[in-house]
Amino acid sequence: MAAACTSRTRQMMGLLRILRNFSQNERLLSTSVLRHNVASDGPPKFTPPSKPVIIDKTQKEASLRRFLSPEFIPPRQRTNPVKFSIERKDMIQRRKVLNIPEFYAGSILAVTMTDPHVNGNMNRFIGICIQRSGKGLGATFILRNVVDGQGVEICYELYSPRMRKIEVLKLEKRLDDNLMYLRDALPEYSTFNFDMQPVHYEITGDVPVNLLKVKMRPKPWSKRWERPKFNIKGIHFDLCLTPEMMEHAQKWAEPWRPYDMLKEYDTSSLEEHIFKEVQENLRK
Amino acid sequence: LHTPVIQCIRTHRTNTWWDEHLTEDNASFLKKVVTEEYKQQTTDKLNPLKDEPWPRHEWVEGSRRVGLVAVKLGMMPVWTKSGERHVVTMLQVQDCHVVKHLSKEEYEGHTAALIVGGKNVSPFHRPEGYLEVFRNAGVPPKQKLTTFCVSDNAIIKPGTPLYAAHFRPGQYVDVTAKTIGKGFQGVMKRWGFKGQPASHGQTKTHRRPGSLGPGGDPAKVFKGKKMPGRMGNIYDTTHGLKVWRVNTKYNILYVNGSVPGHRNCLVKVRDSILPTRLENNKNPPFPTFFADGDEEIPEDLYDQDMFQFGEPMAE
């Protein structure tokens, strides 16, 4: 019996060896066949192997723009931080119900409010955001538009219960934070069509900055925008003011301001803490 | 027979502070011991049922109950359900304890009184006599002490803690505090006089009081004539302020409008005495709100008309 087994195994081994040789021979055969065919066409074109596509799912969140709405940052005061944390809770609760998107001074927004005096109860207004002011729950933003030749500015409260929807039609920044000088600029810079369609903007990367320099109406203006305290970069001063007037305006310059240590307010660490807190609570 | 001889007692005036003759280790040890003692005392007083509590009565019309001492945190906007915007002051009740009870005879009045203390404070910079009152009550020393006139059925045992849930939304409240000191002020700011015009020939007279009274007949200036002087830094009360919201977790009262005093100042809060607001103050937690665990109160108590931020959008 044992002898029979061993003889069978020997046979199997022998078969396996033949098969292996066969496969090797086939391979040899195959390559030789290819070479034989290709040699007639020319040297083979080098086709590089396909690169493996790495989908970094972890990177998506990191590349998103980190934006903390400016009303979350508490002002420099001697108040108890408990007050700010409680206000922030209320703000986050409101944000869970109403989506308040990211926007800057210079972006074009469409705001829908409830209005008891209108037939359909809703009131939609489109305009360019001139300024964002106020901290905490009383944060406001002003939208400006020119309707039928009349300039109209409406100040909206972000956390008011009458707000229904805030849409960003065009997200962009301007050269300044405060665009109040649009009141003294030519009306074409403040007119926006009410039927404007939203322009696509990216969630990653930097916000596009509009380097537009605005042309002004003849003086007198509502404020002396050429003075250095306003620090406006978005007006084309060369067209409306002479170099002598610009120099005269520099008399009101306060060159010691950037070195005033008592006016320093470093918010970077505060911003990080508050950003993390807000992101955590919004996800809950 | 000896006549009583009064001997003169020589006293040493020691002007040292608590830290001066102590080593650093001793000072830090004392600080630690004091904070632990405070914690122990507050936890002891959390359950008034443990040691012979005084009887609790029901609220009757005409009975007056205690108030609270709170810290003014800041201000915030508040919206009603119809969309109107009101401003609200946040008052936080930090470590409020009843410190002493004075009966009618002791208080020399027609009503009994309860002395209530506010924020906890370190014992090192206070005189001994001040600290004695708190030692008798078993309570850490407080920064502000106020007396509340109280009817006999609203007496509370000294040492009980008082919480913000003592007031409920919809109630009306009077708030007393020391106003912000403005220093020596002129007559226009202090008394609201109109002053004189800026131009049209006025010689050196734009903010002056003008005439001081009638002429030769009295030939004097009456007492109490409004004149320039020190303004502010006096106790003043704002009456009839509505309570919009009560946060039981952080013990914060949201009180309508503005309140005298600067931020983080101590403030006396009491049920309103205005006759038109007595209806809103019916059936309050009497004599006070006890956190024994009998009633489960939600973290935030809102007024009926107030818009709550977590609500889905309604009209």
UniProtKB/TrEMBL annotation, chain A:
InterPro entries the UniProt entry points to: Ribosomal_bL19, Ribosomal_bL19_sf, Translation_prot_SH3-like_sf
Any single GO CC term annotated in Swiss-Prot or TrEMBL for this entry: mitochondrial large ribosomal subunit
Keyword Transit peptide: yes
Domain of life: Eukaryota
UniProt key word Lyase: no
GO MF annotations in UniProt: structural constituent of ribosome
UniProt-annotated location(s): Mitochondrion
Pfam families the record matches: Ribosomal_L19 (PF01245)
Gene3D superfamilies on file: 2.30.30.790
Chief location bin: mitochondrion
One annotated GO biological process: translation
Keyword entries, A-Z: Mitochondrion, Ribonucleoprotein, Ribosomal protein, Transit peptide
Family per record: Belongs to the bacterial ribosomal protein bL19 family.
Protein name: Large ribosomal subunit protein bL19m
Species of origin: Sinocyclocheilus grahami
Gene: mrpl19
From TrEMBL, chain B:
Molecular function GO terms recorded: structural constituent of ribosome
Superkingdom of origin: Eukaryota
Coiled-coil zones: none
GO biological process, any: translation
Residues in the signal sequence: none
Keyword annotations of the record: Mitochondrion, Ribonucleoprotein, Ribosomal protein, Transit peptide
Stretches for region Disordered: 195-218
InterPro entries attached to this UniProt entry: Ribosomal_uL3, Ribosomal_uL3_bac/org-type, Ribosomal_uL3_CS, Transl_B-barrel_sf
GO cellular component entries: mitochondrial inner membrane; mitochondrial large ribosomal subunit
Main location (coarse class): mitochondrion
Localization of this protein: Mitochondrion
Cited PANTHER family: 50S RIBOSOMAL PROTEIN L3 (PTHR11229), LARGE RIBOSOMAL SUBUNIT PROTEIN UL3M (PTHR11229:SF8)
Family recorded in the similarity comment: Belongs to the universal ribosomal protein uL3 family.
Name of the featured protein: Large ribosomal subunit protein uL3m
Organism annotation: Sinocyclocheilus grahami
Gene coding for it: mrpl3
